[in-house]
Amino acid sequence: MTMFEARPADSFGFKEVGYEKKDFVATVTIRRPQNYNAYSTPALRELAAAFTDASEDDGVAVIVFTGEGDRAFCTGGDVKEYEREYTSRPRDYWKYMGLFKAYIESILNNGKPTIARLNGMAVGGGNESLLACDLAVMAEHAYISQVGTSVGSVACGGATQWLPIVVGDKRAREILFLNERIPARKALDWGLVNRVVPSVTKEGVFIDGATDQQIALAKKGTDGYAIDLSRLDEEVEKLCAHLVDKFSECLRYTKQQVNFWKDLAWHSTAGHARDWLSIHYCSWEPIEGMSAFVEKRKPNYRGLRERAAAGKSSEFPWGAPKTSCPHCGAKNLPEDLAYCGACGVKL
Question: 42, 47, 217, 249: which has the fewest Cβ within 10 Å?
Answer without folding.
Answer: 249
